[in-house]
Amino acid sequence: MARAPVTDWASDWDHLDPAWVGNPYPIWQGLRDRCPVARTDRYRGVYFPTRYADIRKVAYDPDRFSSRRVVVREGEYRVNSPPITSDPPEHRPMRMVLIPPFTPQAVAKLEPQTRSVCNELIDRILVQEACDAAVDYAQHIPVRIIAHMLGIPAEHGDRFRAWITMALQEGVTNQAALKQAEQEISEYFAAQIAERRTRPGDDLVSFLIEARHPDGEAFTDRQVLGALRLLLIAGIDTTWSAIGSSLWHLATHPHDRERLVREPALIDTAIEEFLRAYAPVTMAREVVEDTELAGCPMKKGEMVMLSFPAANRDPDKFAHADAVKIDRAENPHVAFGLGIHRCIGSNLARMEMRIALAEWLKRIPDFSLDRTRPMTWSEGAVRGPRVLPIVMAAR
Amino acid sequence: MTSGITLRVDPDKCQGHARCSALAPELFQLDEFGNARERLGTCSEPDQIDKAYVARANCPEEAIIITEG
Ligand code: HEM
Ligand code: SF4
């Protein structure tokens, strides 16, 4: 379906416009200079702050900017997935339950598993003629690890990815796809919950069934289901995008690639820079009452984009914000959000990125973007390469 | 006599991004909910002082408070 072309980014922006999908950064810099809180009448009215300071204010103010809607899409359909769609005080109980399995210490135990998943994928890539780093590599890693954590067979991964594409990409403009994905995910997890009630295991589904509110109450099946659905949706295409964007950068910047091969100790710093420069996740909030931001009036019931990617590119906060410096020493980026909703999976995502890139560079140190084949970026709330053709140097 | 610093994580601001504990594990530790706490209240080793400033510069929530002297 062709969308109406954007007439003016400041008053009619559209994050599904092909120019934005392909390369949003110059558009955002233009807005920062002339209209730091842009607006569109599309999607029933959405504001778009592009400055770090304003984005920070929105993230820190759940009283004025509610998480009851966190995705900008056409249609009224709402999805309830605590903690990401809850505000204080309901937000905290489910969040506190979900944090312990995702601490750095907890995810470190998954490193050997992640390393073997990556190496299996690389084994297959090395015997192929042509390689797609998104399709053959990045997209599989988070699926396999979250399936492992949930105690679910790895073969179900294809279904997970199909649901996520339906919910997050098609779902922006197509309510039927969104509803269908929600329903199928819910049915799938309802069956998993029922099974774990009779045969508990050492996995996140069983863990959530056993989990208790601070006041000692168990969570309802609906809450457990919502949390499982969130872990699936929040954890997969985000990390896949982050790994994909990092490989895209290395495939198009041979100096950085060679340097990382030479100096593997730089990997952690490089990953933080890839997260800053190519932050995959843009959230949104609903305006709770008529208010203003940076002098721009905002109407109750409309939405505000919470663009962590734009905050990360603000030159007032990050020196040479549009330059990717894999040794950037000061990097308080907000790819994982700011404030009370800080990404619960951040430690897991970092671990997966580190191992995915390190194993790839060990075995495929010399590679570049295959410019004879098209590449594509996803559109919507999560940005990353979906098709990433790579040529590997003959060895 | 080198001048030292006092180091503190503001628990109301920290959201557990775990940047400090990754960059300076000898100065910061995380509890089971991923929130950071300082291991040392004060430090005077130049190397530790440098690391404390690096951690502060990388904390997205501006939760690390350093006081000189
Ligand atoms: C590079 C990969 C990832 C990125 C960039 C990312 C980004 C984000 C961001 C920006 C938020 C804040 C949402 C808001 O303020 O409304 C968030 C929240 C969340 N993320 Fe992630 N995420 C990633 C991977 C993961 C993974 C692997 C998981 C778990 C398996 C996960 C689970 C969550 C959950 C549960 C929340 C909700 C936290 C809350 O509302 O308190 N994420 N993520
Ligand atoms: S970097 Fe900041 S927010 Fe993160 S754990 Fe350390 S003090 Fe807390």
At the fourth level of CATH, the homologous superfamily of chain A is Cytochrome P450
CATH top level label of chain A: Mainly Alpha
Question: How would you sum up the global shape of chain B?
Answer: globular
Look up the CATH topology of chain A. Answer: Cytochrome p450
The helix-and-strand class of chain A reads: alpha+beta
Describe this structure in words.
The complex is a heterodimer of chains A (395) and B (69). By secondary structure, chain A is of the alpha+beta class. Helix content of chain A is 48%, strand content 10%. The longest helix of chain A has 24 residues. With 69 residues, chain B is an alpha+beta fold. Chain B is 26% helix and 26% strand. Chain B contains two helices and five strands. In chain B, the strands form two sheets. In chain B, strands 4-1-5 form a three-stranded antiparallel beta sheet, with helices on one face. A two-stranded antiparallel sheet of chain B has the order 2-3. Chain B is globular. The model of chain B has no long low-confidence stretch (mean pLDDT 93). The chains are: A alpha+beta (395), B alpha+beta (69). The interface between A and B is medium-sized, with 22 and 18 residues. Bound molecules: protoporphyrin IX containing FE and iron/sulfur cluster (SF4). Protoporphyrin IX containing FE binds next to α5, α13, α14 and α18 of chain A.
